[in-house]
Amino acid sequence: MPRVLAVCTGNVCRSPLTAVLLRARIADPRLSIASAGVRALTGSPFDAATARVAREHGAREEHIVAHRARQLRPADLGRADLVLALSRGHRRGAVETDPSVLRSVFTLREFARLARAADDDALSDAASRAVGPSARLRELLLLLDGLRDVAGLPADREDDVVDPHGRPDPVHEMAGAQIAPAVDQVVRVLRAALS
Known about the structure:
With about 200 residues, the chain is α/β, with parallel strands linked by helices.
């Protein structure tokens, strides 16, 4: 079963938004989707403003209500097939915690940029090299990792999702506008792994 982990700071805004949008867009029992924070507000629910944004982008109410922030543990990184960091700092921290995850950790927006650079045939070819969803996802991640040098480097901070925690509603909306289209690209790759 492929395991996807979204990581941000407090686990009340960006990473749970990523997780609930993934669940809404690709409900498949063969897929595990979780989120955690590097400095989690452990036990806290979704930030209310981000929860509104999640609803606007089609997240299911039961997933929003069920969320409780949890602290990222090193073992979480080792178990995940794909780690989606919401900033470059989170990505760097994940790799420093467990260097073996280097090729499976991407910022969410970096992942989306790389996935856009891979056409459907390339995804299909990569997935066909393995048997089983987890193995296919690993092949797809190798493909995307190989595109890091050729897909073009972003401008400074372009791979980060703005942190809306404690900020006005428009910043939460901006985070949602950055996360939602990136999630669509993650779904595209996950569908190739599950096919």
